[in-house]
Amino acid sequence: MREAQVEELTRPAKAHPERATKDGTGKRAEHDRIDDLRSFIAACERQGELQRIKAEVDWNIELSHVSKVNEEQKGPALLYENVKGYNIPVLTSAFVTPARLAMCLEQDPSLSMCQIARKWMELTTRQHIKPQLTDDVPVRENILTGDQIDLTRFPAPWFYPEDGGRYIGTAVFLVTQDPETGWTNLGTYRMQILDRDVCGVQIIKGKHADFMFKQYEARGEVMPVAAVIGCDPVLFLVSSTLVSAQTDEYDIASTLRQRPVPIFKSDLTGLKLPARAEIILEGYIDPKDLRPEGPFGEYTGYYSGNANEEWPKPAFKVQRILHRNNPIFWATTVGKPVTDTHMIQSLNRTATLWHDLETMRVPGIEGVYIPPEACGRFWAIVSLRQKYPGHSNHAGNAVISTTTGHYGVKGVITVDHDIAADDWARVMWALSTRFDPKRSAQIIDRGRSTPLDPGLPIEAREIVSRVILDACTPFEWTKKPVEIFMDRTVLRKVSDRWNEYGFKGASPVAEMIDRLTRPEKKK
Fold it and tell me: What CATH number corresponds to the domain at position 139?
């Protein structure tokens, strides 16, 4: 694609004042309306969050390495406009910063991960909004069948040296449908190109697509599937989110958008698909056709097992490709934290865990956080205002009983309400000063694990032990340690004289005062 075409397709859009909200400075913060990948790219550019790379970059290793180095620096989203051998641009590093995750959700870019997750929780605990069928379907601008089908026509990267091949599916989701209830599932599963019209799909045991796969297998039928590459980014966010069975992710996406997501019904597979996607691969999975797939440099920072060491994976036979004119290919580097994969998992798992605890009516929850540094999965932190003896233990045990927390979580840390769940420095302080290993640690022998956990032997990755670390001062103690606080009046004086002391810029005291001084009593 010529550079002028790329810039025209993704030119910055006007902000929508009806979506404006107050930001931390008291000014009006304008948020772009996001309906597809192109409007997200345009919003990133408008906010200075996008870098266009015009130099030629090889899809074979080089592209992923440029992206990973950029992600290590918390850099901008990258749009590669000159991928070697292709005229299709590639987007990577989409969600490395909380600002871009907030922009995707049409929220204030200054919000922290915990604040974005709280917004998510608040929206999704309301009445869900259904998607809407539409006749305006840009993804059907090009329809490829028969000999036209060749997965290598798209610039699918080879990510890491020991990968088993090119992966067309990283920023991707698979659409499947329950043959009995009609429930539609959107699930993120990696997809390796195995042949010009076949890709291997890693559907892990116990995932919702695996439920459906087993249903079709029992019926002796092939399973209709579609892979979506490039779309309204909120759809990709929810596709990697742990939601309850029989809940359509389209409903969650529409609820987060606060308007119906536009979809159409495929005349080939009968599946409901996003109308404004960039690329859709349609076809079937035969439960009898299982093939070796991998290895792949996973989000844990380790390669998954060799193809012959892991379980054989379903083979997705592509029978049709739909794509927009001048499509944009979306990929994510995966690999060691922190990449946009970990940021996505951190946000959606934090949000759904908070949602789970809210709907379970666990009282006193002030904050929830699943850090991206923990691969966005393995550790959870809960801040709570204790109301009774054993409350912090109640919250810790509740986490590992939730839809979100029962899968893969190895540890839970509970802290008192004066510590924000995403304040790592204070969490470590609480573990040092409010925690006693014998009193405060609880080991749970058996929990559901992920087969991608490199901390477990490859032949025994279905079950993992868990630990709950209660870093709260016990509620029932009558003599609690006396915490040090600065004097609020003097601290305000320091703030007023900050530049007089010779410091440059605004005083940092305003944002510190509530954390460093004794909480004022409510009148």
Answer: 2.30.110.10
